[in-house]
Amino acid sequence: MDYIKDALEVNKSALTRTIKSLKYFPAIVLAILVMVVGNMVGLVISAYLSQVVPSIVSGIILYIIDVITMSILMSCLYSVIVGSRLNVKNFTQGWQRYISPLMATRFIFWIIEMVIGMVPVFGPISYILSIALSVLMSPMLETVYIDGESGVNALMSIINFLKDNVVQWIPVAVVIGFLFTILNSYIGLGILFLYDIKLLLTMVASMFALAFVYIYKGHLYDILHDSSMRKRKFQGVFDR
Questions:
Q1: To the nearest whole percent, how much of the chain has pLDDT over 70?
Q2: Mean pLDDT confidence for 2-23
Q3: Mind listing the pLDDT tens digit for each residue in 24-73?
Q4: Residue 103 lies in a domain
Q5: How many domains would you assign to the chain?
Q6: Residue 2 forms part of a structural domain
Q7: Whole domain around residue 123: which residue ranges?
Q8: Is residue 1 part of a domain?
């Protein structure tokens, strides 16, 4: 019961902090929009280059654009979650420090995905592995931009974090994984059918919902990553 009570308390605290961060939502939505536009531009460039250069070149370009735009989002999230301040430098300079650790960490997860992809499993086991991988990756960004970890160290930090917060984090991570899938699909539809006002409004709403999820996840991680259930109980973390 103590674990369930703690899980409810930490998520309540994360929700409270997220609501207090409402004023930063437009900036996070802008960062998400930068990611979307960046990926669109990358796909166009990739489609053009694939006709004249090996596919690996266009793949590398897509990867670089993805890392850069994700780093911009991480810079904004760090300012909201840890610093409670946000300015134009998050979009012009602050993101550069996240490129190297993000690339190193994503490379580790790419290897894990490759290994899992080589395992001949089907049916329910395949879905279970997909969910397990989603949970494992769920605190990846936070481990990089809050803890400052990268590569193998980030992976070990994530494993320890998940082990210590099975009840507090993992159920939320599963729900967030499904939300990411749904919201990203709505954003994708909005991009494909920009002339459809209804889909366009749905895309904008999905971006704000995605901003909420990113900020909520960041606050929850910030509460959990450097404290134990006992420490939170006796230090009155939830009074902040």
A1: 95
A2: 91
A3: 999 999 999 998 888 888 878 877 877 777 777 777 888 888 899 999 99
A4: yes
A5: 1
A6: no
A7: 7-239
A8: no
Collapse the DSSP code of 240 into the 3-class scheme (helix H, G, I; strand E, B; otherwise coil) and give the result.
coil
Q: How far is CA 149 from CA 28, 146, 165, in A?
A: 22, 8, 18
Q: What is the Cα–Cα distance from 72 to 35, expressed in whole angstroms?
A: 8
Indicate the angle between helix axes 170-192 and 25-49, nearest 10 degrees.
Answer: 60
pLDDT in tens, 176-194: 999 988 988 888 887 777 7
Q: pTM of this prediction? A: 0.88
Amino acid occupying residue 75: S
Place of tokens 């266009």: 58
Which of left, alpha, beta for 15 (phi over 0: left; psi -120 to 50: alpha)? alpha
**CA-wise closest residue to 35 among 210, 163, 222, 231:** 210
126-134 CB contacts, 8 Å cutoff, 24+ apart: 131/174, 131/177, 134/173, 134/174, 134/177
Question: What tokens were used for 119?
Answer: 């395992």
Query: Do 177 and 135 contact (CB within 8 A), yes or no?
Result: yes
- Which is more confident, 123 or 104? 104
Position 217 in a domain: yes
